[in-house]
Amino acid sequence: MTPPRVKVFIDRGGTFTDCIAFIPSASDPSSYTTKVIKLLSEDPANYPDAPTEAIRRILELHTGKTIPRNVKLDTSDIGNSFSHEISINATVSPTELIRMGTTVATNALLERKGEPVALVITKGFKDILHIQNQSRPKIFDLELNMPDVLYDKVIEIDERVSLVGYTAHSRGHILEDQAAVLSADPNCVKGVTGEWVRVLKRIDTQVVEKQLQEIYNSGIRSIAICLMHSYTFVDHENEVARLASKLPFKNISVSSRIAPTIKLVPRSNSAVSDAYLTPSIRQYISTFTAGFDAGITRKNDSESGVRVQFMKSDGGLADVHDFNGLGAILSGPAGGVVGYALTSFDPEEGSAVIGFDMGGTSTDVSRYAGRYDLVFETTTAGVTIQAPQLDINTVAAGGGSRLFFRNGMFVVGPESAGANPGPTCYKKGGPLAITDANLLLGRLIPAYFPSIFGKTEREPLDLEETRRAFAVLASQINRTSNSEMSVDEIAYGFIEVANEAMCRPIRQLTQAKGYDTSKHILACFGGAGGQHACAIAKSLGIRTILIHKHSSILSAYGLSLADIVHEVQEPRFAHFDTLLVSPVFSQEIFDPANLNGFKQRISAMSTKARAHLLRQGFSDERILIEPYLNLRYEGTDTAIMTLKPEASWDFLESFTTTYKTEFGFSFPDRRVIVDDIRIRAIGKAAPSESLKTTIHKEIASHPRHQIDTVFAKSIHQTYWKGFGRVSTPVFMLPDLQEGTAISGPCLIIDATATIVVEPSSRALITKEHVVIEVDTNASLDQFSGRSEIVQDPIMLSVFGHRFMSIAEQMGRTLQKTSISTNIKERLDFSCALFGPDGGLVANAPHLPVHLGSMQEAVKWQMRYLGDSLSEGDVLMTNHPAAGGSHLPDITIITPVFSEGNLVFFVANRGHHADIGGIQPGSMPPNSCELYQEGAAVKSFRLVRSGKFDENGLRALLIDAPARFDGCSGSRCFADNLSDIKAQVAANQRGITLVQQLIKEYRLEVVQAYMSFIRENAESAVRAMLNRFAESIGEVLEAEDQMDDGSVIKLQISIDSTTGNAEFDFTGTAREVYGNTNAPRAVVYSAIIYCLRCLINVDMPLNQGALQPISVVIPEGSMLSPSETAAVVGGNVLTSQRLCDVILKAFGVCAASQGCTNNFTFGSGGKDKDGNVADGFGYYETIAGGSGAGPTWDGRSGVHTHMTNTRITDPEILERRYPVLLRQFGLRKGSGGNGIHRGGDGVVREVSLLRYVADLLIKICQMEFLDTLHVSILSERRVFQPYGMRGGEPGQRGQNLLKRMNGPTVNFGGKNATVVHAGDVVTILTPGGGGYGSLRARDEGVDDNSTAKKARVQVRLAGGSLAMLEDAQRDF
Question: Could you tell me the sign of the dihedral formed by the alpha carbons of 385, 386, 387, 391, in that order?
Fold first, then answer.
């Protein structure tokens, strides 16, 4: 009999490496002893590799022999090919022996320390990964710190293909008789998705070979290849890969093989990430295996030796030979998700589980309800990639999160003390952090904590140094806030603020997706999680906490439970057509006639995936096949990876059900698109029955015996809110028997973690868990019984989080329930909470142009309607005279009542694709009267006492605008209706959350802190204004001109005794007979935005910021126009110039591009004879350069100031519309020169596809492609963006039009025309101004310009919350 061997599972983290091993008994192979080892991940003085060192120590315990570190480890003692079933809870396959999760790829991505890479991409797109989606991560930062690209060099391949046909209108679909013509064309081919592709430019192999040789000669050994439309047309990528393989590159990542899905940007990011990380992974594997003898790796089941497997980001295991960089990014966190999922969820009991993994620098939250939630496109470490990942969301709050007192508020993170120097108590001179707060409060006990600190790394935690540091901070806080808080109260205050920060993503992951948070179980793990679990659960209303006995090493333990996963993916482009119309794009229609086609592809792909697992030794009965179709409604970009139902092939019903659950509605009249097929083959480690947890049965039936404090290991003085310092029993977990019940407060400690059981909570010890039962009825209202509510800086921070969370969740609801591209994908909306006076309380920072203007709309309705509002009413408005910005921005306002009294308002504003007017898109460049821009509504009771007035809405949006000559009503009323209903739903979500907050704290308290939050913003603005008054003077002046010569003039007068300021726009030009007039509300938005930028600290933005400000705007000027004045350009252009003028007055930075470059094209609407034709429309805003400042260069190719909308991916653009995007890149040299350069603008060149037009005219005589309406609405085409302090101005923008066979002409800043097939529009956007005189620098003159590069902070896992949170995160 082969002697028993050990099974080893290792999680190599950034700071610590955790190892759990199961050591078999020599006498009874079915009996195992568990050993846990924790060691530093980096300790080069003692060992070269932490996992190898962990295994060495395990083998010493197993064999009883001393194993020198310089000797290769004998693999004969690791693992075994048992013929019997392994009877340990950590069940493993007979052939898997060492499993690892690693942060090697994670750290390389976070720290940007991967392999030098060259990107190979289609000509015209070399800068696409710099531009990304053109949005900026933090909208109030003038210095735009964004992650650098991962590649070092770029090769542009002179090749191009285009799609034939388009999806935006049925007239662009390719029918069967047209397909016959295409098949005869040697330049046309059907791609792997079934879409027709025309090759416009073939690869010149000789040129490409030369380009690749040059890259190789430069020293680069890893390349990423990503060409336009390679998700369907792979030939060109394969040819480049073939040519590259002739050179000794050590890695070639091909996008069509790694991420074969549509969207150029994330697919390119995926290929580059893989090329960047895979060499690091291979190098690490090589280093690891070098510590063992030749038996360490085995390629298949027939070979002898040890099998090594790695955890992937999707929660499955991969053989060491299949492990790559793209799949390794969340390797470490994924093990923890698997661990808590399989030890905490019971399908019979049914409660979903929230995973709460709190580490040193951040906290990961996730959710499990019987199946792993996967995301297939997300932002990870600042890079948007396409790869299956567990839906893990990271918040920058961990044990090492730093503590600050800023602007009268307690602030935790996002900065971290890190591992070195670490928190103050680590004795290396580090700052105060959450770990220090827990130590001071007695929640961490140095005597039970490893002595690994100080310069010798052998000292205990330093409580005295922590006390001294907190005493200094307490003195500052009490002096500033005029309070008398104790050090304990201050330390606990930071704990409360950190807890609230960690609750926000949990609420987003549950409540915002329609789940009741209180119905969940909290599974807590990670080194710091147990210290915060009770407080987190109580705040969320969760009654049960599960902490596994291996909670501090659960990522390692989860590896022992994980399955082997292999995926096969194939892109498709098919319709699941519920209407059963004629086939389009030559694709299958989902009906009985073509279902077999899907079945055949799924069967073939399943066979391929199954064969991969069979080669690894799995039997057929242990292999589970999960077929997925990636489905979305036609005209949207929101796809859902839909699993095949167990008992049928009705993907459509499953998709519709999932869509309704997630978004609250479906589109029964829209076709469903299949973007790709994915097969997930799972090699089960053991029968699923053996993995079922019994914890819930134990909780219900286990006999309990209460333990007395006399059995405590020690008594420790611990601080508890409401009780102060209390003598608290300390129990050692290994000493507690099953069934032991312990009432809080107490501390439960094992070798690697401390569990804090708060008063009114109760702990139960089971076989595998510590179960904490939380009394959620215990009062959270610390204000109970108080006659006067006094401002508390701790609760000020907590309420700041709660108010902002309401606005965020409203945004999440709006984004997920809307249908239009503008709201759902471009995120052109904002949500906010207002007080009973109509003043802003909290505005999730979505779009700056909406920030100050929405409160003007709320206040206008209050004045207009008086006391006539009732519960159940919802108001709609968009008129600029009623607080609107421009007409496409529709504002929905809902009053919030409590006990019959109006106590708050909630509102949101969203940009609608069309609301009528003279031109599709309702953004006409040549409008002179307001009616030409579409429907204008001052006040409409959209919902009255709960009844939705659809007929009234139809009259306002369709009938009213069409009464004017040359104008149409809304060209997409169905979309208007759906989005407005989504806006109503978002407000309803806000009402629910406000009412919950009132129930939790009482109305008086909530409204008191509404006022305190405003006062806090007011004091911050006053302090900032006083600083400027002292440094540059009390009177500031600036002016600038619009391209038509209209002047915007500003004088700011600061009263340094009060901190008040007057913004006086006297001297500004009169109202223009054009559309660059800006409503007063837009002026307020620009002011509040600039004030927030100048404060430059995270704080809730609200009406208080405007309290010290008085504004003088001359009536009849372009900033206070008449009610009939056109304003569409004022919102998108003049607003930008207002920011330039305000920031110029303060002298903080050079001008940014000063424009949003509004580009629109489409067809349809009312013709000159009054006939109405259906059509389509497209609207985008285009990035430019940001202005430089005293310590920073401007950012190139980014949206600035008043907008932050995203741009459509190039491949999506070309699939939807009959256009070819010839170029989208940086406009080199367009930024102004200076000590710090301004950012460059971009070049965007679009043409109407000639071949599509010819084909359709020839076959269908469809002339519409020759009459596409195009318009541009832009600024800074005459006057350049200014430089600052001697810096040079940025280059002005330019718009060009080239007719087919005609000359290139200047299209002008504001123009519209009809384009024909082959015509080209080129938009060159302005650069930002430079800062600082190069001449002055050369002459030795100090102008306060210094070089500085701020560290870019990126979070590891974005998960499903990434897109919206990145757009709205501020406080």
Answer: positive
